[in-house]
Amino acid sequence: MKARAFQQIDVFTATPYRGNPVAVVLDGSGLSTAEMQHFTHWTNLSECAFVLPPTEAGRAAGADYRVRIFCPGRELPFAGHPTLGTCHAWLEAGGVPVAADVVQECGAGLVRIRREGTFTDGPPPGERTSLRGAATREPAERGGDARLAFAAPPLLRSGPLDEADVALIARGLGIARRDIQAHAWCDNGPTWRGVLLGSAAQVLALRPDAAVLAGLDVGVIGPHPAGNEAAFEVRAFFPGSGGLTEDPVTGSLNAALGQWLIAAGLAPARYVTAQGTVLDRAGRVFVERAADGTVWVGGQSVTCISGQVRL
User: Fold this and answer.
1) How confident is the model at residue 130 (pLDDT cuts 50, 70, 90)?
2) How many CA atoms lie within 13 A of 74 on its CB side?
3) Which of 12, 102, 125, 246 is surrounded by the most beta carbons within 10 Å?
4) Residue 158 included in any domain
C-alpha cells in the first residue's frame, strides 16, 4: 500500500454537503480493477474516480488526464458528477491543462470541460484575453468553487421508448400512463430512460415502487412554474444494493435530458434544473446548448475532504 492524494468533492453545489459527493483518488497508478472496485464499495458513495496519466492515443488527442469511474458493482464509461468532481480536484491539486479547456479521457472517449466564464457569461475575473481573442486563465487560479461544465458526450441510444417500457415506468412511479407527456432513451453510458411529467410538483410527489422498476435506470423531469429559480425538477432512480436507489444530483442524466428536450423543443436552449430536493440536497445543474449544437452541463463544486488514502 502507498499513500495517495485523495479528495472528496461535493458536486453541483457551492454549499458543502448539499450536492452529490464523489471520492477522487488523484493517483490511481498500479491499482488493479478489483482494487479500484473494492475501494469504491468501501467509500459507500455512488461513485469513485481514479486519476491516471492519459493513454498514448489520449495524450496525442490532447487529453490532460485519464479517469476510471466506478459505482458499486461496475465500472462506468462516463458519469457526470464524477467528471466535474475529478476536474475540480485535479485543478485544485495543481493540474494545468494544455489548452483553454480541460480534456478528460474516460471510457466514453474524450470529454471537454470548461471553466467558469466560458459558460457564455464572458470571461470571469482573473482571466485575460490573448491576442487571438481566446480567454486564458492565469495558472495561479485553480479549483475553488468556480463553475465547471462538461460537453455532453453523444447519446449511444435515443428516440422514444417502447410503449411497454413506458407503461411499466408509469406503474413503477405510481402514476397514470397519461401523466407521462413525453419519453425517450437517454443512454450516454448509463442507460437512462427519460420521462417528462406535467409539473415539478408531480416529480416531487413520486413514491416509486422498487420491485416494479427493478433493473431500470429511470430519469424523471417536470417543469417548475414560470419565475422559479430552476426551470425543471429532476429525479433519478437506478438499481442499488438495497433495491432502488435515488441519486442526489446526476450529471449524465441531465446531459441526456438536455440533449433530448432542447432538440425536441420541450426546453429552452439554456435552463437550470433542481435535483435532490426530496433528499434534503440542493443540487443545481446548468444546461446550455451552444451555437455549434454542443450541450454543456455544469455546476459548482466544493472540496469537503482533502488528504491521503492508503491504497
Assistant:
1) very low
2) 10
3) 12
4) no
